[in-house]
């Protein structure tokens, strides 16, 4: 298991800049995507039941978050904050909040227990949607790739947590391609895409409050760091 662990321990240059909402707006490029290319791709729920990807946005507006992998510490901490989004705020705005990973479906339940996430979540184990939409593989650190305001752990401790979770998982695997990056889409009803962002690296998440406001959620949400028990 030394070689896989070595892969997980690969370090990259950390980004420590703090950015404002205005910089996010100014620094975000909207990708030109066509959901017709992926509407018939299959996604799977925690029971392994398959659905067409288009079922997520056909009849309602949806905020769809693609994460790197379920072991990734930055994705885990991002979903920690997604779990704080009140269901009532989404229902009032008629918005669906969806997370998509790229592991096998067996990893969904443990990930939800770890993060407290109770909204919709599915997996794309073959990465069909990731690949067809052109999401990045490998990380790029540039001035335009802004750091996630939702990631609390530093790079070293984050890597240690990821490795520990891999070692203590019932099935030792990486719960997805380690090099695959994620993204965020606001789409629907129908195939209309309102917004799309493909992450440049593990810290390049879109701020949750900004995404929800763009989708039409009126309630103001606070994701400021508060003391809490840290899980690994």
UniProtKB/TrEMBL annotation:
Gene3D superfamilies (UniProt xref): Glutaredoxin
Record InterPro entries: PXL2A/B/C (IPR032801), Thioredoxin-like_sf (IPR036249)
CDD domains the UniProt entry points to: PRX_like2
Pfam families attached to this UniProt entry: AhpC-TSA_2
PANTHER family (UniProt xref): PEROXIREDOXIN-LIKE 2C, PTHR28630
Protein name: Peroxiredoxin like 2C
Lineage: Eukaryota, Metazoa, Chordata, Craniata, Vertebrata
